[in-house]
Design brief:
The chain has about 300 residues and is an alpha/beta fold. About 60% of the residues lie in helices and about 15% in strands. The chain contains seven helices and five strands. Helix 1 runs antiparallel to helix 7 and helix 5 crosses helix 7. It is elongated.
Length: about 300
Amino acid sequence: MATLKELRTRTNSVQSTKKITTAMKLVAASKFRRAQDQLESGRHYVDAFEHQFQALATTKNTYPLTLPLFIGRPEKAEKTHLFIVVTSDRGLCGGFNGVLLRRLLIHIKELEEKGSAFKILTIGQKAKSMLRRNYGDRFHKSYVDVGNPALKFREAQEIAAMILVSFDNEEFDTCDLYFNKFHSAMKQTPTCEQLIPFKAHEEDESPTEIEQTRKEPEALCELEPKLENFLKDMIPHHIATRLYMSFLETAAGEQGARMLAMDSATRNADDMIKGLNLSYNRIRQASITRELIEIISGAEAI
């Protein structure tokens, strides 16, 4: 049984931890609001750009596309896959990073069973540290502290440019982006998006739905000399916008998850303090009762 001194020490320790978790919760709440505002403002631009890009890229019946970025490299039997994984740089945010990495590992195991080659590009310290243990030899490149102190679109453009150079050098043939899609502070969904070759949203529909709903987009302008040249200039911006949105979604999701994790830790600390105080009072009461019995017994003996 713990002594009164040990219980006091443990109670003081838990109270100190509670002060830390409370402060971290308040800081995360402040950062969450800023990250959420930045995500909402960025989403308007990205949605508008993606709508136009999708409209142009899905006019392939009128303008047949031959760019590898759009059709892949069908001539290659053995393709190399690139996984881009976006996580946070810091922990203490519950299972925010773990759930995403577990989904990625399922995909990696499938490729390993088939004997397919793959590479990993990590963005965030957590992805780097957790994947390097088993797949350090498969790392293509790693980025940490992206968006520190403030997230800028230029960072996404630089990474997108590097990815395109690697693709042109045939270092990989397909590219998937893994990140946590933000819904609310309580919900973030592990998501995988195919970046290369470009996959139009329409391809997600079933054949019957496509036959019923697909309509060729109306021409908004005339493109000269041809559509491929125009799309070739747009694809770097498209990849940069997808990366930028994944950074924004991850930043908002991280702070939301940390805010909830610290709130849960604070409530657990309160429960522990109540339990320790109860144990302290019981032991103290038992000690007082025992001393009274000894005094009474001594008085009777006299």
